[in-house]
Amino acid sequence: MSRYITRLRMRRTYKWNGRPVGEDRKLKRQYYESMSISVEGKTEDATVSLGQYILIEGDDDDNPFVAQLLKLYTDDSGKKKTAVLQWFVRMCEVPQNKRKLLGRDPHPQEIFFYQDRSCDNEVDGETILGAVQIEYVPVQDPFPVGKSRDILFVKLLWDTKSFRALDPELMQPPQSPKSPPPSSRGPQTRALPTPDPSVMKRAMSGILTRGSMSTGKMSSSEAESLHSASKLSAAKALSAKRRSQAVSGPQVRKKLDLCSPSKNMSRDDVLGELLDERSEKTLTSKLNTSPTGRISISIRLTPLNLNKEECVSPLSSHSPDKPRMTAHDKDDAARAEEEHEDSPINTAATSRSKRKSAQLVSSRIKKQLNLLGNKIDLQSDGEDGDDDDCFIPSKIDLQSSSDEEEEAKIDSEDELIVKKHRGSGTSRSTEKTRVSARTPRKTPSKKTAPATPRTPRHATPSIPSRTAPARKPGNVLEEARARLHVSSVPESLPCREQEFQDIYNFVESKVIDGTGGCMYISGVPGTGKTATVHEVIRSLQQSAEQDEIPHFRFIEINGMKMTDPHQAYVQILQKLTDQKATPDHAAALLEKRFSAPAPKKETVVLLVDELDLLWTRKQNVMYNLFDWPTRRNARLVVLTIANTMDLPERIMINRVASRLGLTRMSFQPYTFKQLQQIITSRLNRVKAFEEDALQLVSRKVAALSGDARRCLDICRRATEICEHSGSQKNSSGLVGMSHVMEALDEMFSSSYISAIRCASVQEQLFLRAVIAEFRRLGLEEATFQQVFVQHQALCRVEGLQPANVSEGLTVCQRLGSCRLLLLEGSRLDLFLRIRLNVSQDDVLYALKAD
Amino acid sequence: MCVSVYVLCVCLCVFLHCVCVCVCVCVSVCVCVCVCVCVCVFRHLLELLRRTAVHGESNSVLIVGPRGSGKTMLLGCVLRELMSLKEAQKNVLLVELNGLLQTDDKIALKEITRQLHLENVVGDKVFGSFAENLAFLLEALKKGDKSSSRPVLFVLDEFDLFAHHKNQTLLYNLLDVSQSAQTPVAVLGLTCRLDVLELLEKRVKSRFSHRQIHLFSSLSFAQYLDVVRAQLSLPPDFPDPKFSDEWNHSVTKLCEDKTVEEILRRNFNGSKDFRSLHSLLFLAVSRVSVSHSTLREADLIEAWRLISVDSKANVLHGLSILELCLIIAMKHLNDTYDGEPFNFQMVHNEFKKFIQRKSHSIHKFEKPVVMKAFEHLLQLELVRPVDSGVCKVQREYQLMRLMLEHGQVMEALQKYPQCPTDVKQWALSAFG
């Protein structure tokens, strides 16, 4: 939650770096090479340039969209910055139903190359959040382990229908066709020489065979992307630096030369680029093979060590900015020094695994800086994350060791230095932002006050599984009973074809058009409202799977399943983005989500069951639910269900009712024919009922309520009765009229009469006395005293010893507790008011037959 | 010292005997109710729960019957029987709620969560807000499915009280789970209200399977006598066979006695439930001592006297003559004005009339003294103000009602020790 606020608070400003590198006269566009993003309150800027992998602001704050930057241009006025992208999708963006196509559990950091022509690949340049690091992993290789959690891996290609192996070629930034005409590109603007494709190929294969991370391309922009993502641990970066320095030295110098005259880039940009030169460890492998890789093999240990110490101290200390800032400067200075020295690294180091180097560094850190205190600090900071891990070990993405976590911490801090341009004072909040951006579930724990115990967030709700397996139905009757249970999902919903079609058309049209709308569905309980909507969604999802219609999300909330109408927001938000928030905050988030335009937005179909319970005095919940679909960018379809047809008129104020609109549908109670059809279709050729019996049940239920649940329950009970009686006398084994009659009697017959018949003598007498008193008074109410006089008289008539007042009251209370009598004002003692809860005729009938 | 120990021993002995007999009575109640009232119902319920436990079929059922008709006992027997089945033994989770304890859904949810040992239970405490708990429980129940998760039996005692919870959220959700393909549950409601279904909201009602088991005792008096005999008899495996024989013989003889039968019949007429019988027999049995080790007719008569005594009779016994006179005055006022309320002034006038005209033994009391006596009656709640809300009226003129029946007054007079005859005659005379 806090993350969201901080993000709102941080205003970013975007400006072009350098002069336009090309121009399209026809379209009146000016192309740029890179763009710098400065965040308010930070002194330093981040830079994104072509070919780099970037994060785009999306609906989900935790998982921003990932893309590769292909083009940056501005229109004629020069105001609107547009970016052309190649999208990548996360697993969570892949439609739910297609996820299984992957055939394995996705790696938490896995993303997919997105190939969909229909998808708009131009976005507003100002939605770019920053850069990210992506690595290509060949299909057959396992995901690299022990890497920073911020590196994303791409292995496969997702073309909205299936996952395919990704050709590494695709990962290359399309050089000639998409970038501005080369003629207009001044050679001086290129920071790095375009790598030789053959070299790249070789480099790649080298990387692949080693199974280390690979970018799959070697262009300068790639290098930069590596930098800005810089998800490598700082320590790793440092060790890599030494290695890469030798080879990248010339390039660095070149860049420096370039940048200093232009004055366009801030010192930190340079630094960033330098950093990334250092961190681009993968390059080293290539560089080994490339001619430059062999430039120098001379080793200088001392300055490096010194440098190391300097560098490590800021990174390991988790203390606020000031010291780190200075350290950073020192680091910077040291590096500058190094650059000039052109100190090469030991080539042996290159072959070392990344993990090893990381370990090495961390051990050195420990040794040199007696890190104990800091370490505690670190851990306390990353505590939430660690706790998370403890709670669900099953979560793969959290399985990283705390060691790694720290590492990630360090390096992301490093990243922060580069990316966010930390100004003093805001560091804490930005840190929070970043942390939560990585692991969403941490945020709530941050804000949890220790004083109020809450549900452990990662307690997985589950019911223990049974030891012995459930037994399958054995005979025809059991089979029938299982099929007749309301919970069993039928293959189709008979008798609701028209309603089905209407709802289907409504939702389908909205999904296809990408618009929003509301629908109100009413009907008495048990008429299949919810079932029909579910059926519609099921078939829509099927057709979405076959790509007949666009994908959509389906969310269901139920007014009865929440404790307070405002919880609706919380539940919607949780189902939509898996975030937890307070009702107010959830409302704000949803408001933003449904009103802000965003690329790649799916239509959301929201089913609100038991709508009437969302009623509040101000009706703001209902208002919002119906208002969101009317927003231009919402793409929200709201289906609401309630029992009464005139609910909008009765309980909604005008502005709510008006937004609900007139798309209404009412489900009529089932007729007996429909009920019969429902049972028949459920039984589906299991011969368990006689025709007459079915007809009797359906006619009876249709006459009473038309509730399909009732009908099914009666049938189920009838099979039980049949089973019991079947063992006694040799009947046909089918459920016949007699069984159904018995079941009907059991469910519909009033129990009052048998209760009166089974009452004790005094109780029966008392009921008689009540009636006698009513007749005497001509009223339907009497006090206990009056009735008691009658009661005593009756006792004498019957030859019983008259009861005393206490006994009389006991009898009266007992009848009252059964609700044969309605008693009022029990503290009034003798003046207790008595009414009958049964008709007088029923009482007399019951007593006479006795 | 020695003596006291001996006395203690004797006491203990007697006590143990009593306890023994009482325990036997208790046990036999159990058996009797189950055997003679509801064999058929028992089978029905057992079969139902067995299907939930074994097949994973969700069910909901209400057991309705007047108080003391053995609903809880029936369920207890069924559950015992169910747990003795091998296939159901370790396969069932039981959640017991009582409407008198779980007075709202919040508490009920916590209790369910606690009894199910869900993961948000730490120690014996359930954490999280009401909304979180509900979401958590629903999520848990939703995750289960028919074949793999353990069935949960929800026993809701005083089911009708759950229907008074806000929106009936708990009932809706439990019954909704029982009607959908989630964790198999059986919702068992126990209630004494016959109109319980009318309490349910229409959506909740529709989700309930309408399976009701009614427990009414259609016991005849002969059966009732048998039950009494069975309850009082000692079991054959009683450690002291001689005493057992003697005791059982006395019980048989007792049940044939006319007076005893009359008492039992009156009790039977009053109510058929076994709790009232039980309390009667308990009083009788507790009078058994070392000196007379068998149950006698007198014990039962005494027990009956204790049980059937009117609750106000003793209060009336403790009144002074003046207070009694006031009550008689009120009775006359009631007779005169046909139950209309009266005030102190009227009572005082009536009382003065009596003193002036008929009284020989009672002298004149000052008005404040009479007022004091009247207030005492007010304190004893033998007299009650009609409308306590209006206090503006002077005390003498505040309207009152007499909380005694005509018969109660007369009976008190009969039993009142040394009641002056003129007072008695005044009470019997038709009008003041």
TrEMBL record, chain A:
InterPro entries: AAA+_ATPase, AAA_lid_10, ATPase_AAA_core, BAH_dom, BAH_sf, Cdc6_C, ORC1/CDC6, P-loop_NTPase
Basic and acidic residues composition-biased segments: 319-338
Compositional bias ranges of the Acidic residues kind: 380-390, 402-415
GO biological process: DNA replication initiation; mitotic DNA replication checkpoint signaling
Region annotation (Disordered) ranges: 167-200, 234-266, 310-360, 377-474
A GO MF label: ATP binding
Subcellular location: Nucleus
CDD domains tied to this protein: BAH_Orc1p_animal, Cdc6_C
Pfam families: AAA (PF00004), AAA_lid_10 (PF17872), BAH (PF01426), WHD_Cdc6 (PF09079)
Domain of life: Eukaryota
UniProt feature, compositional bias: Low complexity: 446-461
Keyword entries, A-Z: ATP-binding, DNA replication, DNA-binding, Magnesium, Metal-binding, Nucleotide-binding, Nucleus, Phosphoprotein
Family listed: Belongs to the ORC1 family.
Assembly and oligomerization: ORC is composed of six subunits. Component of ORC, a complex composed of at least 6 subunits: ORC1, ORC2, ORC3, ORC4, ORC5 and ORC6. ORC is regulated in a cell-cycle dependent manner. It is sequentially assembled at the exit from anaphase of mitosis and disassembled as cells enter S phase. Interacts with CDC6 and KAT7/HBO1. Interacts with LRWD1 predominantly during the G1 phase and with less affinity during mitosis, when phosphorylated.
Entry protein name: Origin recognition complex subunit 1
Organism name: Cyprinus carpio carpio
From TrEMBL, chain B:
One Pfam family in the UniProt entry: ORC4_C
Residues covered by the AAA+ ATPase domain: 57-218
GO BP: DNA replication initiation
Domain of life: Eukaryota
Major localization class: nucleus
Gene Ontology MF terms: ATP binding; DNA replication origin binding
SMART domains referenced in this protein's UniProt entry, alphabetically: AAA (SM00382)
PANTHER family in alphabetical order: ORIGIN RECOGNITION COMPLEX SUBUNIT 4
Assembly, per entry: Component of ORC, a complex composed of at least 6 subunits: ORC1, ORC2, ORC3, ORC4, ORC5 and ORC6. ORC is regulated in a cell-cycle dependent manner. It is sequentially assembled at the exit from anaphase of mitosis and disassembled as cells enter S phase. Interacts with DBF4. Interacts with POLQ.
Primary role: Component of the origin recognition complex (ORC) that binds origins of replication.
Family: Belongs to the ORC4 family.
Name the record gives this protein: Origin recognition complex subunit 4
